[in-house]
Design goal:
Blueprint (H helix, E strand, L loop, with lengths): L2 H17 L9 E6 L3 E5 L13 E5 L15 H10 L5 E5 L2 H9 L3 E5 L16 E7 L5 H13 L7 E4 L3 E6 L2 H24 L1
Parallel strand pairs: 6-7
Antiparallel strand pairs: 1-2, 1-4, 2-3, 4-8, 5-6, 7-8
Length: about 200
C-alpha cells in the first residue's frame, strides 16, 4: 500500500471516530507505519473529524519529524515506542471516549472483561468465556517516560491484548494494519460502554 492510500485510510478512520465522539476538541492521535522505518501521524491540534492528508506528517521510529517545521502530536513517543516493540504493528490509534476515560479512572491496574461475544473482535481472543484484561497505566505529561514504562510492561508480558488504557486519558489500540486497529478500537469501545452501563445499573 502506498503513501496516498495509507493517508486516505487514516483520514477516513479519523472522520468516523470523530463522528462517534471518540476524539472531541482535537483530542486523540492516529498513526500508520509507512515502510519499515517511518510512520505517518496526525499533527498536533488538528480536528480529527475534519482531518485531511495535509494534517498528517512523517516521523522516524524515534518519533522525530522528518520535516522539522511540522509539529507531531505530543504523544508521538508512545506511537514510536509501539512500532519499535513490534515490527508487525502497522497502525496505532488513540481515542478519548467517555467510557474509556471513566473506566480507566475506576480501575486499579486493569479492566477485566468476560462474557461478551464482542471480545472476539480482539485478535487472539477465541471465546466470550475468556477473560480479557486491558492494562491501565497512570497518566504522565512526559510521554517519553510513559514510553519507557510501556516498554518495560511489554517486555514483562503485562500487555497481552492489542490495547491499553491511560488513566483519566483514553484508549490506545493497535493492529497489523489500519483496518485491524480500527476493529480493535471499535471492539474495546463497545465493551467499555457495556461495562459502564452495567456499573450505572448497580
Amino acid at each position: 500500500m502506498d503513501y496516498t492510500d495509507i493517508a486516505g485510510q487514516l483520514c477516513k478512520t479519523c472522520h468516523l471516530f470523530g463522528s462517534r465522539r471518540w476524539c472531541l476538541a482535537t483530542s486523540g492521535n492516529f498513526s500508520a507505519r509507512v515502510g519499515h522505518e517511518q510512520f505517518l501521524i496526525s499533527q498536533s491540534g488538528r480536528e480529527k473529524s475534519e482531518l485531511s492528508p495535509d494534517d498528517l506528517m512523517l516521523c522516524d521510529l524515534d518519533g522525530t519529524a522528518l520535516k522539522p517545521e511540522q509539529i507531531p502530536s505530543a504523544e508521538t513517543p508512545v506511537h514510536a515506542c509501539l512500532y519499535r516493540l513490534d515490527e508487525n504493528i502497522g497502525a496505532v490509534l488513540h481515542t478519548h471516549s467517555v467510557p474509556a476515560t471513566v473506566l480507566s479512572r475506576a480501575a486499579e491496574t486493569g479492566v477485566e472483561i468476560t462474557g461478551y461475544e464482542m471480545q472476539k473482535a480482539l485478535t487472539g481472543v477465541k471465546s466470550h468465556e475468556a477473560t480479557v484484561t486491558v492494562p491501565v497505566f497512570d497518566n504522565d505529561q512526559d510521554m517519553h517516560a510513559m514510553a519507557v514504562r510501556l516498554t518495560k510492561a511489554w517486555r514483562d508480558g503485562r500487555i497481552a491484548v492489542p490495547g491499553l488504557l491511560i488513566r483519566g486519558h483514553g484508549l490506545y489500540a493497535w493492529g497489523a494494519d489500519i483496518a485491524t486497529a480500527r476493529r480493535h478500537i471499535e471492539g474495546f469501545e463497545f465493551l467499555f460502554e457495556c461495562l459502564l452501563n452495567e456499573d450505572m445499573r448497580r
